[in-house]
Amino acid sequence: DTAVSQTPKYLVTQMGNDKSIKCEQNLGHDTMYWYKQDSKKFLKIMFSYNNKELIINETVPNRFSPKSPDKAHLNLHINSLELGDSAVYFCASSQDIRGGTRLSSYNEQFFGPGTRLTVL
Amino acid sequence: AQSVTQLGSHVSVSEGALVLLRCNYSSSVPPYLFWYVQYPNQGLQLLLKYTSAATLVKGINGFEAEFKKSETSFHLTKPSAHMSDAAEYFCAVRASSGGSQGNLIFGKGTKLSVKP
């Protein structure tokens, strides 16, 4: 059974288009993340959701909008795609305990296989 | 703010030789540290983690890492490299302050090549 799955695995599209990447986890975790890996392999957090609530929103253009219909899913919608959006996007999940605004458990994150987005 | 520095973007060893991948961290609070491995065209897989228990942490595939507070280091080692160890290795610290709590802060990665 796949723990964290993403679709599609590859996505090739033209500049200006709108696209979505889906992520699902069957681990029963309550926190999900989106990371971006650039061409130099550098990984950076984009968003984090805990129980469908946005926790982290790094300095990401508002063309990127995460949506969490339930705690097992965290989808990423991107509007008006640009060349610089080309990267590999990873979804991850973990089991964390949230008290107020703090995440107080430090379990490891489980990553999906990634979605390679190419904008032409 | 926390950060991680991986020394050496590329390390090459011979099969059977010692593997040493270096990671230094910066953190004003006790850190939670992780090593992940990424095989070509795949996602990240956890090798091991340090969460303030034993300072010598054993992971999968024969890897281990030692947390040294005095040196702010968390270097990854394996006594004998195997061809299948060729991959990209990432050291990460768990953010524990500010608005970005809970996410991982990654180093820039070290590509390990293993020569026959």
How would you characterize the overall build of this protein?
The complex is a heterodimer of chains A (120) and B (116). Chain A is mainly β and 120 residues long. Chain A has strands spanning 4-7, 10-13, 19-25, 31-37, 43-50, 53-57, 64-67, 75-78, 87-94, 98-99, 102-103, 110-111, 115-119. The mean pLDDT of chain B is 91. In chain B, strands 2, 4, 5, 9, 10 and 11 form a 6-stranded mixed sheet that branches. Chain B has a 5-stranded antiparallel sheet with strand order 1-3-8-7-6, with no helix packed on it. The termini of chain B are far apart. Chain B has 116 residues and is mainly beta. Chain B has strands at 3-7, 10-14, 19-26, 33-38, 44-50, 56-58, 64-68, 73-78, 87-94, 104-106, 110-115. In chain B, strand 4 (33-38) and strand 5 (44-50) form a beta hairpin. Chain B is built from no helices and 11 strands. Chain B is 0% helix and 53% strand. At the A-B interface, strand 4, strand 5, strand 9, strand 11 and strand 12 of A face strand 4, strand 5, strand 9 and strand 10 of B.
Q: How widely separated are the two ends of chain A?
A: 34 Å
Give the SSE order of chain B as H and E letters.
EEEEEEEEEEE
Unreliable residue runs of chain B = none
Treating each run of at least 4 consecutive H or I residues as one helix, how many helices of chain B?
Answer: 0
What fraction of residues of chain B sit in β-strands? Answer: over 45%
Main sheet makeup of chain A: 7 strands, mixed
Q: Give the CA-based shape of chain A.
A: globular
Kindly state the number of beta strands of chain B: 11
Radius of gyration of chain A: 14 Å
Oligomer: heterodimer
Order of helices and strands of chain A: EEEEEEEEEEEEE
Give the helices and strands, then pairings:
The complex is a heterodimer of chains A (120) and B (116).
Chain A: E1 4-7, E2 10-13, E3 19-25, E4 31-37, E5 43-50, E6 53-57, E7 64-67, E8 75-78, E9 87-94, E10 98-99, E11 102-103, E12 110-111, E13 115-119
Parallel strand pairs in A: 2-13
Antiparallel strand pairs in A: 1-3, 3-8, 4-5, 4-9, 5-6, 7-8, 9-12, 9-13, 10-11
Chain B: E1 3-7, E2 10-14, E3 19-26, E4 33-38, E5 44-50, E6 56-58, E7 64-68, E8 73-78, E9 87-94, E10 104-106, E11 110-115
